């Protein structure tokens, strides 16, 4: 969410302002509140389809108009489901066992920036080595 307060204080100084997206909104991925200037997502963004979106936002009041460019950078995350080498094993840990026994599950998919796992007690994540 992004709000265009700059227009209100620097350009139109208290006038009733109408905001609109006047360029670059391919596929209608973004919406803008005409009264507040708040820009929000109307649909999910996908890095594989577009790394960046450039919008033109127009503010109009009393016959005058001002425009601003909004550039949205889309980060790349691994959104593919993991493919396990073997079916996931069933792992049992005895209550109050403090030996820190490791469990390894191999996967074959695109590299991740972060590997995460979960248990009934919580979840944790660590950055991969290398």
Automatic annotation (TrEMBL):
<dbReference type="GO" id="GO:0008013">
    <property type="term" value="F:beta-catenin binding"/>
</dbReference>
<dbReference type="GO" id="GO:0005509">
    <property type="term" value="F:calcium ion binding"/>
</dbReference>
<dbReference type="InterPro" id="IPR039808">
    <property type="entry name" value="Cadherin"/>
</dbReference>
<dbReference type="GO" id="GO:0016477">
    <property type="term" value="P:cell migration"/>
</dbReference>
<feature type="domain" description="Cadherin">
    <location>
        <begin position="13"/>
        <end position="84"/>
    </location>
</feature>
<dbReference type="InterPro" id="IPR002126">
    <property type="entry name" value="Cadherin-like_dom"/>
</dbReference>
<protein>
    <recommendedName>
        <fullName>Cadherin domain-containing protein</fullName>
    </recommendedName>
</protein>
<dbReference type="InterPro" id="IPR020894">
    <property type="entry name" value="Cadherin_CS"/>
</dbReference>
<dbReference type="Pfam" id="PF00028">
    <property type="entry name" value="Cadherin"/>
</dbReference>
<feature type="compositionally biased region" description="Polar residues">
    <location>
        <begin position="113"/>
        <end position="130"/>
    </location>
</feature>
<dbReference type="GO" id="GO:0045296">
    <property type="term" value="F:cadherin binding"/>
</dbReference>
<dbReference type="InterPro" id="IPR015919">
    <property type="entry name" value="Cadherin-like_sf"/>
</dbReference>
<dbReference type="GO" id="GO:0016342">
    <property type="term" value="C:catenin complex"/>
</dbReference>
<feature type="region of interest" description="Disordered">
    <location>
        <begin position="105"/>
        <end position="130"/>
    </location>
</feature>
<keyword id="KW-0677">Repeat</keyword>
<keyword id="KW-0472">Membrane</keyword>
<keyword id="KW-0106">Calcium</keyword>
<dbReference type="GO" id="GO:0007156">
    <property type="term" value="P:homophilic cell adhesion via plasma membrane adhesion molecules"/>
</dbReference>
